[in-house]
């Protein structure tokens, strides 16, 4: 007993690991540009312009215009996420298991890394210059084939046009997310299923897709959150002609006519909840996929 007491008394405390210094810049960045602004929005959503507590801002979210804006944003985000997931999965499947030339994969991955971050005013200008009423592709289709896509109902400044624009960064993001998951499919699983007499369709239906399903659904949720919070591309492309929540939020905080910052904070709070739930589901599903890949 005395010996144990002496050992405890002479045990020196472990020095603090210097590895924490490497994450200090990230913690400071997250605090200044994520946590504090989010906290400011949450507090502002429950305040009046003079700083008094109120629930009226939350109650005002029940206005028909705001509900319609939320529905429009959710619909666009879901459509772009679904199409981006399907097309991105097909591309990732082609470069991982499609036996394409080796140079295709690094080229596509490099482009995906760049395109997934290409948004805002440059992306809106690129689509206007390409598929606008006087865009390059629009003019080529009319001059060569006599096809006027706008006469057939296409409109870049609409639900379908914004969804198409979002696909430019949604598809590459899906490729970046799904490629590691497809790489995690072990060759032994395919060989074992073949030995047992399973066809290619049976392998994908009973082995590969059940393993990839959490990753696919999680990637869909991430793409949904990615497009739901986009404002620069939508505002630069459509201005105020499309009633989506990000443009309505901008009008409430920065606009001259619809100027109610505290209502804008309440709108932002709703967006934070929706994107937070989407990202939470993505993280949970990604952890489930990681167990199989390991």
UniProtKB/TrEMBL annotation:
Coiled coil: none annotated. PANTHER family: INNER MEMBRANE ABC TRANSPORTER PERMEASE PROTEIN YDCU-RELATED (PTHR42929:SF1), INNER MEMBRANE ABC TRANSPORTER PERMEASE PROTEIN YDCU-RELATED-RELATED (PTHR42929). InterPro entries: MetI-like, MetI-like_sf. It comes from the Bacteria. It is a multi-pass membrane protein. Residues 70-282 form the ABC transmembrane type-1 domain. Keywords: Cell membrane, Membrane, Transmembrane, Transmembrane helix, Transport. Belongs to the binding-protein-dependent transport system permease family. CysTW subfamily. The keyword Cell membrane applies. This is Spermidine/putrescine transport system permease protein. It is found in: Cell membrane. Pfam families: BPD_transp_1. The chain crosses the membrane at residues 20-43, 74-96, 108-129, 135-152, 164-182, 202-225, 232-253, 265-285.
């Amino acid at each position: 007993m005395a010996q144990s007491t002496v050992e405890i008394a002479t045990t020196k405390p472990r020095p603090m690991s210097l590895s924490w210094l490497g994450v200090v810049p990230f913690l400071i960045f997250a605090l200044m540009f994520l946590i504090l602004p989010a906290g400011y929005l949450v507090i502002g959503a429950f305040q009046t312009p003079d700083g008094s507590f109120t629930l009226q801002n939350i109650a005002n979210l029940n206005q028909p215009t705001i509900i319609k804006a939320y529905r429009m944003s959710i619909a666009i985000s879901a459509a772009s996420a679904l199409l981006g997931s399907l097309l991105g999965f097909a591309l990732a499947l082609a470069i991982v298991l499609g036996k394409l030339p080796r140079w295709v994969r690094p080229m596509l991955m490099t482009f995906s890394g760049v395109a997934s971050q290409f948004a805002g005013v440059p992306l809106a200008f690129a689509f206007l210059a390409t598929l606008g009423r006087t865009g390059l592709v629009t003019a080529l289709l009319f001059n060569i084939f006599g096809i006027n896509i706008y006469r057939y109902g296409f409109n870049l400044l609409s639900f379908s046009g914004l969804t198409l624009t979002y696909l430019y960064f949604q598809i590459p993001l899906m490729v970046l997310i799904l490629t590691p998951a497809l790489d995690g499919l072990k060759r032994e699983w395919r060989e074992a299923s073949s030995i047992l007499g399973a066809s290619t369709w049976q392998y994908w239906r009973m082995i590969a897709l059940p393993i990839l399903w959490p990753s696919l659904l999680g990637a869909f949720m991430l793409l949904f959150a990615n497009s739901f919070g986009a404002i620069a591309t939508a505002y630069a492309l459509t201005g105020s002609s499309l009633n989506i929540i990000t443009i309505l939020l901008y009008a409430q905080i920065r606009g001259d006519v619809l100027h109610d910052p505290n209502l804008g904070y309440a709108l932002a709070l709703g967006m934070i909840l929706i994107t937070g739930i989407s990202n939470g589901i993505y993280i949970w599903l990604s952890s489930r996929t990681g167990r199989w890949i390991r």
